[in-house]
Amino acid sequence: MLEITNLACSRGDRQLFTGLNFSLEPGSLLYVEGRNGTGKSTLLRAVCGLFLADSGEISWHGKSTRSLAEEYTREVLYLGHHNGIKDDLTGLENLRISTVLDGDDVTEDQIWAALKKMGLKGFEDLPTKVLSQGQKRRVALARLLLNSAGVWILDEPFTALDIAAVDLLQSVISDHINNGGIVILTTHQEVALTSGQIQRLELGGKKNKHV
To answer: Which residue in 8, 62, 108, 208 could disulfide with 18, CB within 3.0 to 4.6 Å?
Structure first.
C-alpha cells in the first residue's frame, strides 16, 4: 500500500496544499485534478521523492519512504512533462540507457518490440531530434512496457499523442492496474480508464477534495 498522511507542500512563500491524505492499494488508479498552479506536478514529484514536502508522511507498505530510500524508488517509475530522452540518441539507445538506470534486465528484442508496439516501427534507429513531438513522447512512454516498477507516476502522459496512441496508452495503463500495479496521473484530456479501484483528488480551493 502507498499511503500519504497530512502532506503539505509549498513553492516559495505560496502554500500549494496542506493536510493531504489518501491511500492506494494494488490495482488502484488516482486521478489528480485541479487548475494550473494548484500543485499537481509538485504532489507527483513529492510522492516519487523528487520534491521534499514541508510536512507529512509518505509510506510504502507501512514504512516511511525516507527510510526505505532506494528500496522504494526502485518501485517507482516517474514520467514528467518532459520526455527525459536525449535528442542525439536513437529511440533504441534511449531505452537501453533507461532500462539500465532503472535496473531492469531487458533484451534487445524486447526494446525493439516495445518501440514497435508504441507505433515507432521504422523510426527505432533515428536520432530522436528528427522525430515529431508525438513520436518523442512515444519513445518516453515505451519505458512503461519495459519497466518492472509497481507504482507509475505519470504527469500529463497523453500530451502530444494522437487518438491511436491515446487508446494504446489507456490499454497499457489498464493492464498495469489489472496486474496489481498502482497509477497516479494528471491529465487535461478526458480518457476512458475504468479498470481497478479509481479515486479522484481535486487540488485547489479552500479544501482539497478526495473521492
So the answer is: 8
Nearest to 195 by CA among 211, 183, 210, 209: 183
Instruction: Sheet containing 76-79: give its strands across.
Output: 76-79, 151-155, 182-186, 28-33, 197-202, 209-210
Enter the pTM of the model.
Answer: 0.91
User: For residue 207, which amino acid is it?
Assistant: K
pLDDT digits (tens, 9 = 90+) for 151-182: 999 999 998 899 999 999 999 999 999 999 99
CATH level 3 topology of 1-75+150-211: Rossmann fold (3.40.50)
pLDDT, residue 36, reads 87
pLDDT confidence tier of residue 116, bands split at 50, 70 and 90 = very high
Residue-wise burial string across 50-89, b where 16 or more C-beta atoms lie within 10 A, e elsewhere: eeebeebebbbeeeebeebeeebbebbbbbbeebebeeeb
